[in-house]
Every structure is written in C-alpha cells, then in structure tokens.
Design the sequence.
C-alpha cells in the first residue's frame, strides 16, 4: 500500500489496513481522544440548543411581554439619548451601561397596557421623574405636545383599543426592536 501521512504526528507511514489514519498505537490513542473531544463538543452544543429551546418553550406570555418591553425600552432610550427629559427638560445623563435614564410611558404600562409598545407613548425620562415623580403627567403632556403635536397626544389619550399579543407577536416585537436598536446604533 502506498504511504500515508499520520493524522496526528504527520509522519509518513505504510498502512497495514486501508482505513488506517495513524501510524502507531500512541497516535491511535491520541486520535481517538481528539475524536471523543470533538464529539463531546458537538453534543454540548446540541444540548445547549435543546436547553434554549425548552427554556423558550416554558416561557409564558408574561415572560415574552417582559422581554419585548426590554427591547422596546432600549430602543426608546437610544432614540432619545440626545433629547432632554420629556417632562422637565433636564439633560438625560448619558451613562454608558444600563442607561442613565428611563424609558417613561406617558400613559403608564399598568393603566394602558395596550400602549406599552407605542413609540408615541414612550420617551426618554430621567429616573427621578419616571420613578419618583409618578411620571409627572402634566409636564410630560406639555413635553409630549412639543414632540409629537397635540393631535397625536389626543389620539393617544383617547386610544382604548384593546390589544392582545400572542407569544408569536411578542417574539416579533422583541426581534423588531432589537433590530431597530441595532440600526440606530449603527447610524450614530
Ligand atoms: Zn503518528
Ligand atoms: Zn423630567
């Protein structure tokens, strides 16, 4: 048989079997060790995928709503990063990690959940105004009129159309806002 190159030590050797890949028992041992490691890595990656799929499978509407909201809010914060606070006009702290300011909803997520993903209804707001000023609704409204106009504000205020999101809807919203955020950051 013609000479082959050992898969492990790369020396030329004369194989005694047609499928022989290595020159010696020592290289055979090394070869099977490597093959096992490869198979284990493949298996671990497969397992990870399976775990992610089963984790996704047990996620509830609530979990997906939360994830979609996080993606939406991150987009709003990026959109408004160079704007002042919607209600008080103070500059929004431009902190790099975690966001130095909030995405504040004009009509709150609690009382108007159907507007939770409405871009007209959400704006960059200092943490102080959003969390401790009860959203500062009156000042927020003034700022909002300046941003989107009275007509849009009134349309938001009268919007009572109920919205039911399916898990598929929420997944799509999350994906959309992740993408929109990426595009905004890219265009900086
Ligand atoms: Zn060898
Ligand atoms: Zn404010």
Sequence:
């Amino acid at each position: 048989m013609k000479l082959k190159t050992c898969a492990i030590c790369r020396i030329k050797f004369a194989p005694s079997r047609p499928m022989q890949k290595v020159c010696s028992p020592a290289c055979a041992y090394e070869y099977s060790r490597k093959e096992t490691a490869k198979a284990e890595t493949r298996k671990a990656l497969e397992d990870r995928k399976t775990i992610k799929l089963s984790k996704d499978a047990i996620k509830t509407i609530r979990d997906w709503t939360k994830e979609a909201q996080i993606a939406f809010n991150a987009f709003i914060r990026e959109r408004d990063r160079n704007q002042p606070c919607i209600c008080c006009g103070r500059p929004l702290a431009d902190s790099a990690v975690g966001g130095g300011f909030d995405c504040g909803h004009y009509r709150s997520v609690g009382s108007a959940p159907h507007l939770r993903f409405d871009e007209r209804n959400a704006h960059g707001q200092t943490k102080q105004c959003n969390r401790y000023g009860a959203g500062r609704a009156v000042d927020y409204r003034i700022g909002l009129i300046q941003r989107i106009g009275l007509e849009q504000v009134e349309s938001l205020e009268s919007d009572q159309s109920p919205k039911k999101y399916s898990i598929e809807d929420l997944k799509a919203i999350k994906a959309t806002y992740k993408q929109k955020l990426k595009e905004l950051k890219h265009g900086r």
